[in-house]
Amino acid sequence: MSRTSALPWLFAIIGAAALVSGCEAPRAAPATGAPTFAVDVYRRCEPSVVTLGFARKDPADPKTTHTEYGTGVIVHEAGYILTNAHILRRGGKGAAGVLGHDYDCRIVAVDEMRDLTILKIDAGRPLAPLTLGRSGTLMVGEPIVTIGSPFGTGLSVTIGVVAALNRSTKSDYTYFPNMIQTNTAINPGSSGGPLLNARGEMIGINTTSKTGASDFGYAIPVDRIREALPEILAPEGRLAFVLGLGVAADGPATVTSVAGNSPAEAAGVRPGDVVLGVGDAAVANAIDYSFALLSCRAGRPATLHLMRAGKAVDVAVTPAAIPLRKPDNPQGLSPGLVREYYEGTWDRLPDFAALKPKTTDKAEAFDIGPYKNKDHFALRLTGYLDVPADGTWAFYLKSDDGSRLWIGDRLVVDNDGAHPLAEKYGFIPLAAGKHAIRVGYFDRTETEELVVSWEGPKVKKQTIPAGALFTAGAK
User: Fold this and answer.
1) Does the annotation mark 191 as catalytic?
2) Residue 282's domain spans which residues?
């Protein structure tokens, strides 16, 4: 069947799907044959989709500029944009186009492993966030619309169906588990654009395509994005303050927990309260709450707008600063780390204090060393990290299987559990100097990988160099 002859069949399916879902069925297509449902979806969603370009000078020829194109989705009215992380990999100055207006954009947060990033533009007015749907109830054959800017040409629309669910794939950037497969092509520049259902709700982010195939695209499911965004933003850790509230992941931003001795407890916030706003930022769910916290600062009073037992309540709360951890600065250090090797089979990191290492040696940096290609083992690497400047530092743990990272007695990154290659990160404010650092790692079978990276004041994300690591142990 040709693509043209298949269109009437596809439109009939789309009409039936709309009726089943309780939505109005598409009106009769105009003489051009264009499906009215796609026109309606595009018109409603166009203000929420942005074109992206990251321009950089060619190091070999400063007169030449290379631009990496992409697409993004407005996810908060304050100008926060969700897109793929891979469009940033070559760097450059970013610009975002919204309804014919161009704005400079800055990077807020990047999660390379999940290929997601948050950008920010200042439009001087509230923008229209796209409505997030649900991907857990998707059906194979369900009609879809994609919007993207292929090759930087401007917004374009394609229609198709969900071709398959829970498909895994790998690009030259990262591994993608449990993706939505579609019969719509994803070209360079389309990455980061929305995958939409017939109601105009975002059900995924178009991300990659199958090499050498046409009409074979993959999208990150929106349910995974809902779960990931609060972790990616991590406003309290990123900005080094504590408020002390936990809110429900689904539905309204209902307070699920209030930490003891926290600013929230002092302000009288109670479990069961529903957060409606933080300062001038409206809050409808946990994602909105995380974005709203990005405007908070330690020591600066903020107003929480709450709904309590059906009544509106405003409380003043002042986020508390997380103090810089003072360095340990022990004497008599030498370069390197102490690496302890343990044998056994675990589903989570073992209690190293209750075990005796089979061998102990010295490592130049955080790595698996001579134990590569072994199975059923664990490592503990300890030493001191020389932090070059005061500030909030991010630490990244990429491992297969589980790992954890401590600075002193503070657990900073928890990537524990038996799992495929995955990266997690955390934040801690540190004063310049040498801090005790410890990494635990275990492997069951197959791939063995451990990568420890950091990022901080004037230090871009990079593997922690050997020159920053010291030990008081093995010489």
Assistant:
1) yes
2) 234-321
Catalytic residue among 76, 111, 115, 401: 115
Question: Each residue's pLDDT tens digit in the chain (475 positions)?
Answer: 444 444 444 444 444 344 333 334 444 445 555 457 889 999 999 999 999 999 887 777 777 788 889 999 999 999 999 999 999 888 888 889 898 899 999 999 999 989 999 999 999 999 999 999 999 999 999 999 999 999 999 999 999 999 999 998 887 778 888 999 999 878 889 999 999 999 999 999 999 887 666 778 999 999 999 999 999 999 999 999 999 999 998 889 999 999 999 999 999 999 999 999 999 999 999 999 999 999 999 999 999 999 999 999 999 999 999 999 999 999 999 999 999 999 999 999 999 999 999 999 999 999 999 998 899 999 999 999 999 999 999 999 999 999 999 999 999 999 999 998 889 999 999 999 999 999 999 999 888 899 999 999 999 999 999 999 999 865 5
Please indicate, yes or no, whether residues 102 and 85 belong to a single structural domain of this protein.
Answer: yes
To the query of whether residue 86 is one of the catalytic residues in this protein, the response is yes
Q: If DSSP codes are grouped into helix, strand and coil, which group holds residue 11?
A: helix
Q: Which of 233, 252, 267 is nearest to 78 (CA)?
A: 233
Q: Say if CB 331 and CB 433 are below 8 A apart.
A: no
**Which helix (H) or strand (E) is 291 found in, with range?**
helix 286-293
> From CA 15, how far away is CA 17, in angstroms rounded?
5
Do the strands 217-221 and 202-209 form a parallel or antiparallel pair, or are they unpaired? antiparallel
As a whole number of angstroms, the longest Cα–Cα distance in the chain is: 83
pTM of the predicted structure, to 2 decimals: 0.84
Residue 395 within a domain:
yes
Structure-derived torsion over alpha carbons of residues 178, 184, 188, 190, reported in degrees to the nearest 10: -80
- Please state the domain count of the chain: 3
The CATH number assigned to the domain holding 139 equals 2.40.10.120
Among residues 149, 191, 262, 399, which one is catalytic? 191
Would you call 280 a catalytic residue per the annotation?
Answer: no
| Domain edge (last residue) among 299, 321, 343 | 321
| Active-site residue, from 48, 76, 86, 386 | 86
Find the helix packing angle between 222-233 and 286-293, rounded to 10°: 30
